[in-house]
Amino acid sequence: MNGRIFAGKVTSNDWIFEERSGDPDYWKKRMLSLCREFIFLQMIDNPNIIRLEEIIRTRSNYYCVLEYANGGSLQRLLNAKKRFSEKAAKECIKQIIAGCSALFHLHIMHRDMKLDNILIHFPDRPDNVKIDPKEVDLDNERFVVKIADLGYAREFKARTQTGEMRNDRAFSFKGSPLMMPAEQIQTYWGRGSGYSHKIDVWAIGVIFYQ
Fold first, then answer.
1. Which CDD domains does the entry link to (predicted)?
2. 44 and 113 co-located in one domain
3. Which domain holds residue 42?
4. pLDDT tens-digit readout, 64-94
5. CATH number of the domain that 38 lies in?
6. 5-43 confidence digits (pLDDT tens)
7. Are residues 20 and 100 in the same domain?
């Protein structure tokens, strides 16, 4: 594609149709999750959310061609640098909130917001040169933070029979336990009344603390 570098995500039919003990319809849930991710990425056009370039389907796999973020994940960067300056942390959070707001505008909750699923791109650096995270200077370099991996995402509003939009609470246990608020964990144990898109706001707070 004109010499550009892209990222790729491969999902095999074997994974989709892998049998799960006690749940003969589990493949339907995996297919629904995959279709949701493709649809949501096609709906979104925001610099702080990873862009979908193309979907390729073969007899054995689904190939998702994505925008390439040359800095990798924020988790990788934080592991290398140990800590960010206040200035860099504020800029990262500002961009994460901008991306999350774009999702909320489309009534989408991410459900797995964490540093591993947030990528960073340095537009002034070439894509074909590997970046050493220890040499990155977030205080003096331009960067763009991008939310990625919408595999657990879902809509949080549903249309009623009268055509009105209402909040549609989620009950499934999706995401990373250490990033979850109490109402999401309580739902897993059957003690809660579901959760809303506000779980993503909680996760952003945890990211800021990290």
1. PKc
2. no
3. 6-67
4. 899 999 999 999 999 999 999 999 999 999 9
5. 3.30.200.20
6. 899 888 888 877 777 767 777 777 788 788 888 889 899
7. no
